[in-house]
Give the backbone structure.
Amino acid sequence: MSIENLERRRFDTLVIGAGGGGLRSALQLAEADAHVAVVSKVFPTRSHTVAAQGGMNAALANVLPDNWHWHMYDTIKGSDYLGDQDAIEYMCRSASHLVYELEHQGVPFSRMDSGKIYQRPFGGQSQNFGGEQAARTCAAADRTGHAILHTLYQQNIRAKTHFFDEYFAVDLIKDKDGFILGALVLEIETGEPLLIEAKTTLLATGGAGQLFRTNTNAHINTGDGLAMALRAGIPLQDMEFFQFHPTGIAGKGMLITEGARGEGGYLVNKDGERFMERYAPHAKDLASRDVVSRAIATEVREGRGCGPNGDHVMLKLDHLGRDVLYQRLPGICDMSKAFMHIDPAEEEIPVFPTAHYTMGGIPTNRFGQVVVPVDQGEESIPGLYAVGECACVSVHGANRLGGNSLLDIVVFGRAAGNDIKKYLETNRHHRQIDDESLEQALAHLQRWDEGKDLGDGSESVSGLRAELQKTMEDYCSVFRTEDVLKEGLDKVLALEKRMNNVRITDYSKVFNTARIEALELENLVDLAVATVKSALERKESRGAHSRIDYPERDDVSWLKHSLYYKEDHRMDYKPVTLQPVSVESFPPKPRVY
Amino acid sequence: MRFKIYRYNPEKDQKPYMQEFVLDNVTDDMMLRDALLLIKAQDETLTFRHSCGEGVCGSDAVNINGTNGLACKTRCSELKQPIEVRPVPSMPVIRDLVVDMEQFYHHYRAVKPYLTVHDPVPEVEFRQSPEQRKKLDGLYECILCGCCTTSCPSFWWNPDKFRGPAALLQAYRFLADSRDQATAERLQELDGPYRMFRCHSIMNCVNVCPKGLNPTEAIHSIKKLMVKDLV
């Protein structure tokens, strides 16, 4: 296959990824009569948004008093002051409107007796800037992500969006002037490459939870968009901040929603002690996720873990009663029974912090434009947008609050859609495709073709992936130190080299998942290096990045975003936006729950 | 543990065949998806869809010892050996356990599975009582895995005309929603001898649904609405 006989399609906008972020953008554009293509490596409703459980934050004040400004404060505090306050203000101000809009589109939110949307308490939420617990998380039982994703897909059916289901995005195409012109994609069913030319390209490919052995993520969460950005010369921001969810099912990884603690569940150690009281006297089990995860890891490290190996703690829900559990948390009841033969109405659930969410990502501003540093400031990359978990706006900073990710994807999916509309008004024509960039992308894909796959076969994709995931778990987990991270970096750099030895044993064209997994592993390896390198360089503890050798937050030296470049594994930094759009800044202060 | 897995690669194979695999490291809590992944680590040509691993994405519907189910929610130790894994029935096989689902998705799109509201919407949420909302339980949770539709004999006979249990369940999900204003159109779309009335309450759909949903009951509810509409 050469670039002359490559099949080509043209659209105004190419959306890569069909989770909530991609679908919300696509909807905005399709309704504005833009010609939109959504490319997804799985059928849209299989995207990982479907697995989000607990809910979506918005200060509707349906249950307890609330307002968007309190939500803003909580999000900034939750981010350990690394979040950009302009983007956070924008997100929290938009939240209520967007929940109502989703409700009008059909999301089956749970209801209160008044007929209003049900809201539950979640971690890190407060009334009145750090006061009593708030109840801000709008829920459809514990299947909120499923409800939102299906609704957004359904609305896109109505809007007649073009879908390319089961197409894998290989690389972005860019020209010498720095414009992004679309992407080379692979039709999985036929194995044929396809060039999708687009005036604007939106990356909405989700996170990279598959970096870690035990994770709450789906098999597909391999950070493809982040790696595509890296290969296009774009840096990744704040990659050292990876969220470990406090309550993954121990040893297996399936997620038990924070909503379980929101509904009144709590954690106990082997002595039956409700230990969160010691770590977060005020918020207890509803402290921020980084705080709860560290507490669990500490309990286990200090010998108070449960089970024969003392390697987990227990989540207690049985006191809530069967009716409440099966009404409010039916999904996790079902999951506990299916995977552990445990009925949460009768028994405690074994849990341990589990890799969950990529706070870092492709640097963007609050309009969804991808931005890179130039001289003293930064500028946007023409034609390129990113939203959701693959992006770093940054509304989550060093630690994301539960319930803010579903909000993030909908708010910035819409914002990017709106900005793309404006961009299309002034950029009315497709630019000439850059053949060199296209050749490069095609060569990347053909690395895994018969005759061009020059690995000696001493390594396999599944073997190397398992080793990568184990390395990340052992060397870049909840607690980190210089020595361990250095060793971890050596190991992932060695893995990067060993990718050259990999040879696949399936060169079929039809639905070749071996090839897809090889491409995904390449992406994961790049992101592992980005994550460990960024973690090694940040010599402080902030949010999810916890350095035993630098236990304090250091605002003098480190109140800044990391930027990692693939070329030479180079680091750069940029300031945090402390100035909101219209209200006063929340300056950093000690973070206590 | 012994497995017999349906293999077919259109580029290489004249016809499909069953291939035997033996795994000696299957633990008691291992799901079929885990086992398939172990087999794939030995033979990466084995092709199947899967993703979330916890029964919410609906990717890995397969036929297991003759019954449709999700590989990720089916425990190997509870199955009779050799465990026979085949693609879900009646759909064109693309390769191994991967089938072409387009017919299934077509019927889903055809029932207009989206909330339709003709009146102006309020500035806040529509009010919906807990009782009204409860009517959506057992309907909205569908994950579009296709276990039900591909196990339905009526669908096997008329895959081009009969909407199938999954699509009909979704049709009722919107009919049952107090916010929806397209009842008449929805009922009219489903009228006629094929689209819904090919359902003969065989109830295979109910038996195989990995989410415990009941499409047959939903179809009955639609029929009741039609009768009510007539009188």
In short: The radius of gyration of chain A is 23 Å. DSSP finds 16 helices and 22 strands in chain A. Chain A has a mean pLDDT of 97.
